[in-house]
Amino acid sequence: MISAPSAALGLVYRWTDRTPNPTGEARAVLRRVLKGLGLSGDVVSDGVLAVSELVANAHEHAYGPYEVHVRSAAGRYICEIHDRDPLLPGGLYRGATSSSDAEAAEEAGGLLVERGRGLRIVNELAQGQWGFHVTEHGAKAAWIVLAPALPAPSDGSDADGTRASRSSNSTKRGSTASPKEDPFFSSW
Q1: pLDDT tens figures, 55-108
Q2: Under 8 Å between Cβ of 19 and 30
Q3: Helical spans, DSSP H, in the chain
Q4: CA–CA distance, 9 with 70 (Å, rounded to integer)
Q5: How big is the chain by its Cα radius of gyration, in Å?
């Protein structure tokens, strides 16, 4: 079921376990929303690809209903994919930021590993600015920065004029920082 965006920001797509092709529908809705926000073609393409990987993972590994939200915080557009599973990913998550094990397995067997590449793709496209957190409702959300922060003005303030310190959690690969712990999310 395609949910029409209620606004440019906020809930943009909702689906259930029975929705056929949620990944394709989420891509179409998100592409329309990101273009509507005036983001460049490369940002839209990379964002849609990365979010579609997170949507596919949620649909395959968690349980619904599911939601995609787009927010603006600290001069950045952030997308969250919510599911109803309270467990944060373990090994799957760590594998996204370290490719040495997968590369060694490929070299040893001479075969390409068929699974487990999606989060590595997300990590590369997001330049490490993504992660998971437990929501205030006790469920899980994957988050990803879709558009990088605007260049900081010379006076040390953020692009929106506020002064905020950047936690190293906001740029760690696959950060599990909660939005409440990271000043990057403070405007939510």
Answers
A1: 999 999 899 999 999 998 888 899 999 999 988 887 555 545 555 554 544 454
A2: no
A3: 22-36, 41-61, 91-97, 100-109, 118-125
A4: 5
A5: 17
